[in-house]
Amino acid sequence: MTRPRAARILIPADRRAPRERLETRSPFFLAQPAQPDARPRLLSFESDSFLDDFLAVAGGTRGAPVLLPWRDWAEPPAALVDAAGAPRYAAAALARRTPLSGEFEASSGPALDADGIPHGVNATDRGRTPAWLRKLYLPLHERFNLIAFDLVCGAPGQPRVARDRIRASGTVIRRLVADPGAERWEDWIAVDDKHGAWLALLPAALDTASPAIDPAALPAPEAALEPRLRTLFGLDATQPLPPLALASAPLALLPPDAGEAAQHSTLYGYLPVFSAAREIPPQAIAGDSAVAVTAALAARTGARLDTLFASLATTHTAARTALRALLDATVLRARPTAIQQNAASALVNDLVTGAPGLVVTDAARRVGAAVDLALREAITRLLRTATHPSTTDRDIAGDVLDADALWDESNADNAAKASALFDSLAVPGSGPDAVTISAWLQDAPAGGGGAWSARWDNLLRVRLHRLMDAWLAADPLPPPASGVPALIGADDLATMVVLGLLRLRGCRVSIVARINLALFGENRAAELKATAADGSFQLGLCALAETIEAVLTQESARDDIRTTPPWPQIAPPTEWIGAAHADGEALVRTYTPFDDALAGAGKAALEELGARLASVEARLDAAIGGFLPGLGLARSGLRLDEQPTRGLLALPGLGGTAADAVSFRSAATARYGAQPERLALAEARAADTLPRLRFDADHLYAAWGWMRVAGYTPCEAERIVWTPRSEPFSIADPTDLLGARPASIRMPDIPRLLRDIPRIARARAKPFAGIAAPAGSGVRTGAEMADTRRDFGLGMICNFGIPVLTICALVLFNIIFSILVALPSFSWMLLLKVCLPFTRREP
After folding, report:
1. CB atoms within 10 A of CB 304
2. How far apart are CA 736 and CA 94, in angstroms?
C-alpha cells in the first residue's frame, strides 16, 4: 500500500504586493482616541534610569514626564531666521504639535500663544517672529530622549499587527533645509564612523514615497548630486558610487508585560541627538593654488553678501519704525499740527513780504537759508545739553529729559534769537547789512513777541520733521529754497540719531541706577559715568541693556516663589523711559540676524566692515564737530562698533543705498586677491580645521521611524513602512543654561586636612598628583610678575597634594570672578551667584 505524500507549502518566487494598509499611531499609553495622531511621540526623561522610567510610563504605573514651556520649547535657531526676523523655512508646514492638556505645566509670561507655549519675551514678538518649537537636551544635561509609536492595520478598529511580523525597525533623524518655499530635509550619509555629510537625497514625506524607501539601500541619487558624492567618498568619475544607506538607530518592541503592550505593536528606542561624527563641509574651499583658493573664497563671500543685502528692505522697514518711535520720545518734539504748519507758512510769507530792500526771490532764498541756520543752532543747543555732564547726573538721579524737556532745557525753541546767527546772509555793498538782516529776521513786530517766537519754533519743527522723514526713508533731502545750497546734509541729520542714542543711554542709565540702589544700596554713579581713553562711556548701550534685561526679566517673575529675585522690589521705570529702552532693544533685535549673516560671509567682509566703521566715524566726527567744535562720536560717549549704533549709522546704515551695498561687496571680495596669504589661505586652512559636528544647535531636526514588515501571508512580499515625521525640534547647545543640572563641588575641610597630614605615612596614603615638566619646559616664578619666566633647566616632577590643587583653583576662580564682576559689562554674573550658610550634616 502506497502512503500519500505529505502536503507542502509552496511559496512563489515572486511574491505578490500586500493588500493590507498599515499605519502608525501615537503609542497606546499616550494616545487620545478623540484626536488620533499618526506621528511618533518624543519623550524626555531626566535621569540615567530613563529606560525603567519609560517602561513605567508604558505600564501605566507613572505618568509621562511633564514638559515645561520655558524649557522644552524655544525660538528657532538664529541661523534659520533672516535679518528681518522672518523664518528661512516653511513655517506653516512645520507648525509644532499642539501639546495636550496635562502634557505640560501651565505657565505664564508676557507672550504666550493660544496653546500656552511662549512666543518671545514681550507681546510684540508674536507678530514678528516665528513660533517656538520643541527643544531636546543632551545626555550632558542628564536628559535622555526616546521615540515611540504603534503600528496598526488600517482596517476598522485598527487591529494591531502581529509582533512577529516586524522583522527590523529603526529611527532616522533628518535635518531641515533652509528654504522658505518648501519643506525639504537632508539625510546623513556616513563616510565612516567619524565623518559624513548632510545631503538632500530623499523626498520630504518618507511615509508616502512610492516605491517605499529602504533605509539600507537608497535609490540612485540625482545626477546633480553625483559630483558631491564622489568628492565625499574620494572617487573619480570612473569609479562607481558605493551603496548608500541612512544612518539609523535601532528600535525595539515594547515588552508584552508592560501594561497592555501585549495587545499592541509598540516600537520604541533611544533618540541619539548627540554624535561625535564630524560633518564634511558641503562647501569646502577647493583649489590647489593660492589663486584658486582666493577665487573660491571671493565667490563664496560675494554670494553670501548678495543674499544678505537682498533682505535689507524688510530690515530697514523694521528699523525705521523703532527708530522713529525712539526719536519722537527723546529728541523730536511733536510734529506740528495743521494749524501750526499754517502759522509757520504765514511766518515765511510775512518775512518775504517784509524784506528790507530785497526782491522777492532774494528774500525767499535768504528766508530758506535762515531757517536752516536756525535749525543748525537748535541742533547745536540740543547736542550741548545732551552731552553736558550735568545731564548724566540728572539721568542717574532719575530726572530724565524727554524730547519736550530737552528742547526747553536747551532753549532750542528760541534758536532763531541767537546773536549774529544770520550775519552770513548779509552781502556787504550789495544789500542789507548784518544789523538790518538781524532786525528783519529776529525782531518781532509790535505786540507779537511771544507769538513770533512760537511761529519760529513751529517753522523749525516743520523743517526738521520733513528732513528726518526724508532721511529715514533714504529719499533726497528737501532743499531749503530754490537756488540756496543745502546747509543741512545727511550726516548732519545722522547727528539727530546720535542725539537719540545718547538719550537712549540716559534712559538706560536711570534704570540701571535704580537697579543698583536695590541690589547694592548705592547708584554707583562713578561706574555709570566712567569713560574710556577715547571719551566713550565704558558702560555702553549694550552693557546697560544686558543689565536691565537680566534684572527686570527676573523682576517680572517675582510672583513665582521658585524665581523670586533676592532683592527688594524694583519699581518699573516711567512708561516713556521703558518704551524708549524697548525701542532700543527692538533695533538690536532687528540688526542681530544681519550681524550673524555678515560674520558668515568671511573674514574679508569683517575687515571691510572695520574700514567702513572708520570711514563713517570720520564723517560723523566732522558733522558733529560742525555743531560743537572738538566733539565727535566717541567724545559724545557712543561707540560705533556696538548695536544699534552700528546698524543705524554704518552697516547696513539706515540711510544706505543699493550702491553702498554693491560697493561694500566689491571691496570685501577684492580683499582676498589683495592679500591672499594673509586672508585667503589662512581662512581656508582655518575652515578645514573647524569641527562641524553631525548635530548642532544651529539647525532644526525631525525623526522618522521605519519598519520592515513581513507579509500577512507567506505569499505576500515584505515591505518598508515609514511613520510621518515627528514634531520638529532643535537641539540644545552644550552650554545651554536652561539644560544645566545642579552640581556640587565639595572643597577640602582644611582643619581635617591639617589633622590628617601627619597620618599620611602611617595610612600609606598617596594623595598626590605628579606634574612632570620635561627639560626646558618648566616655569620659574619670582617676587614680581616680571620675574616669572621660562625655566630652561632639567626636567622635574613636582608632586602636589590633590586638595592643594582644589584650593588653588577656588582661590584663582574667586580672584577672576571678583575682577570680572567689577567690570561694567560683566556685572550680570552676580545674578548667577548665590551663597548660603553651610554646616556639617547632622548624623
Report:
1. 18
2. 24
Q: Using CA atoms, how far apart are residues 534 and 171, in angstroms rounded to an integer?
A: 58
Q: Dihedral angle at the C-alpha atoms of 42, 46, 52, 58, nearest 10 degrees? A: -40
Q: Which of 89, 277, 80, 77 is nearest to 189 (CA)?
A: 277
pLDDT at 550: 84
CB atoms within 10 A of CB 116: 17
Looking at residue 843, its pLDDT comes to 47
Question: Under DSSP, is residue 56 helix (H, G, I), strand (E, B) or coil?
Answer: helix
Sequence-distant (6+) residues with CB within 8 A of 689 are none
Read off the DSSP letter of residue 761.
T
Q: Which three cell numbers stand for residue 786?
A: 616680571
d(CA 161, CA 167): 12
Cα–Cα distance for residue pair 675/683, rounded to 1 Å: 11
Among 366, 371, 331, 349, residue whose Cα is nearest residue 462: 371
Looking at 693-801, list the stretches that DSSP marks H as alpha helix, in order from N- to C-terminal side.
Answer: 750-756
Lowest mean pLDDT among 283-297, 316-330, 376-390: 283-297
Distance, CA of 340 to CA of 559 (rounded, Å):
48
Cell of 512: 540701571
**Entry pTM:** 0.80
Instruction: Give the E-state strand segments of 111-204 in sequence order.
Output: 133-136, 144-153, 166-176, 185-190, 195-199
Angle formed at CA 346 by CA 340 and CA 350, multiple of 5 degrees: 145
With H, G, I as helix, E, B as strand and everything else as coil, classify residue 673: helix
CA angle 268, 270, 276 (to 5 degrees): 155
CA distance to 50, 609, 621, 823, per residue, from 634 (Å)? 56, 18, 8, 20
What digits encode the pLDDT tens for the residues 83-127? 667 898 999 999 899 988 789 988 877 788 989 999 877 666 777
Beta strands 278-279 and 195-199: pairing type?
parallel
- Residue 299 grid coordinates: 565667490
Q: According to DSSP H, which parts of 333-388 are helical?
A: 338-353, 360-386
Whether residue 655 has pLDDT greater than 80: no
Distance from first CA to last CA of the chain, Å, rounded?
Answer: 91
> What pLDDT does residue 361 have?
87
Stretch (H or E) spanning 634: helix 633-636
- Could you tell me the three cell numbers for 371? 531757517
Give the pLDDT mean for 426-455.
76
Q: Residues near 709 by Cβ (< 8 Å), separated by ≥ 6?
A: 22, 151, 161, 165, 166, 167, 718, 719, 720, 721
Name which of 240-249, 532-541, 598-607, 784-793 the model is least confident about: 784-793
The dihedrals phi and psi of 639, each to the nearest 5 degrees, come to -120, 135
Range of weakest confidence among 318-327, 354-363, 699-708: 354-363
pLDDT digits (tens, 9 = 90+) for 521-533: 899 999 999 999 9
Helix (H) or strand (E) holding 228: helix 226-233
List Cβ neighbours of 757 (8 Å cut-off, separation of 6 or more): none
Query: In terms of DSSP H, where are the helices of 561-602?
Result: 575-599
CA dihedral 415, 416, 421, 426 (to 10 degrees): 170
SS3 labels along 250-263: ECEECCCCCCCHHH
Rounded Cα–Cα distance for residues 264 and 60 (Å): 14
Closest CA to 204 of 220, 174, 184: 184
Cell of 45: 526623561
DSSP letters, 611-622, are HHHHHHHHHHHH
CA angle 504, 509, 511 (to 5 degrees): 100
425: Cβ contacts below 8 Å, ≥ 6 apart: 366, 369, 370, 373, 437, 441
Phi first, then psi: give them for residue 25, nearest 5 degrees. Answer: -140, 165
Enumerate the β-bridge partners of residue 81: 87
CB 664 within 8 A of CB 604: no
418, HSE (Cβ side, Cα atoms, 13 Å): 20
Identify the bridge partners of residue 92 per DSSP, sorted by sequence position: none
